[in-house]
């Protein structure tokens, strides 16, 4: 009984949330796919249920439809405009990884929003940590204008060495993306041609590689 | 010039969505929290049955008849175990309210309250004695050693889940397994509640919860 009460309470809260979100929706949805009585949340729930069974079309429609909800959640958490896309990407990857935890009898929007909120908070935290580090770095540069002294050169050499080692330990696909796009500064199309991979795969691999490197150097889980 | 961000977004996300679409395989859905709680309680019940076969139910029932507060404390521990496990499983599903974490509170209050009241009694429960420090240490070992496999089982059951609050979930795992161990201890506990005994129980429960909380973030799969 307790569960029923809680579930009902939350569904109420949730439909309020999704109503608020539908105002900022930018991704067009196919009107033919939705019956008149179905709410957007119910439609997404049905898509996710189909995706759990392996329906790729429903899954891609669902993820495209989810982008606006994730953006809204990230904005509500106070993520800066230029980092919202990172949160969207991270959330989509998490959704993919934990899609089996969704229960189709419950609200999809509540499930998605909880994950997006978490990723938004992670983004804010890692941003905060990086900003404080960068501030100290600026300070160090200002107070030690001579960057060519021996210890600085050694230190930057060591740092470059560590980075090279970290890149070498990445999975092959990610390493390739970093080398082509990051180190050799090829354009996406050049890199795609050189590696024979599609641009989307390269972008995803670069994104994952940067995340792995950030975790390694900043100790972020 | 158009804002490059607005230009780049949809394509960036489309590429990822396309990629995730190609990786899509059918998944087995997570069982509902109550069902997974029931599965875990079944294991606890099997252990209880083994202990009851070994020690018999009579000494426990005699203690409870003579001193109902011990019975209430045991009941509170069982309720705490069930509700804490349920709350942990519920928090492993994104979108469930964090208020689930309060679910074990009434059971825990009954458990702690009844145990505490037991210390104020003037008579000693039938067939028991007040435990010495050494005997209290046995309770500590019992609670901790039963909590380890019970916690491990909960962690295994939660690994496929997605706890967005891993530390809170780990605290609930610790509470559930410590409460279940204290309930099992009740079957073969020949000591009356006393300050020393209560203290060791509290110490054991706190240790189990603390160890789980400290390791929780790492052992539970990163959400």
UniProtKB/TrEMBL annotation, chain A:
Give the span(s) annotated as Disordered: 139-158
UniProt GO MF annotations: DNA binding; sigma factor activity
User: Which keywords appear in this protein's UniProt record, sorted alphabetically?
Assistant: DNA-binding, Sigma factor, Transcription, Transcription regulation
Instruction: Write out the coiled-coil annotation as residue ranges.
Output: none
Gene Ontology biological-process annotations: DNA-templated transcription initiation
Q: Pfam families annotated for this entry? A: Sigma70_r2 (PF04542), Sigma70_r4_2 (PF08281)
Domain RNA polymerase sigma factor 70 region 4 type span(s) in chain numbering: 161-213
Which InterPro entries does the record cross-reference, listed alphabetically? RNA_pol_sigma-70-like, RNA_pol_sigma-70_dom, RNA_pol_sigma70_r2, RNA_pol_sigma70_r4_t2, RNA_pol_sigma_r2, RNA_pol_sigma_r3/r4-like, WH-like_DNA-bd_sf
Which NCBIfam families does UniProt cross-reference here?
Answer: sigma70-ECF
Q: What family does this chain come from, according to its entry?
A: Belongs to the sigma-70 factor family. ECF subfamily.
Q: What is this protein called?
A: Sigma-70 family RNA polymerase sigma factor
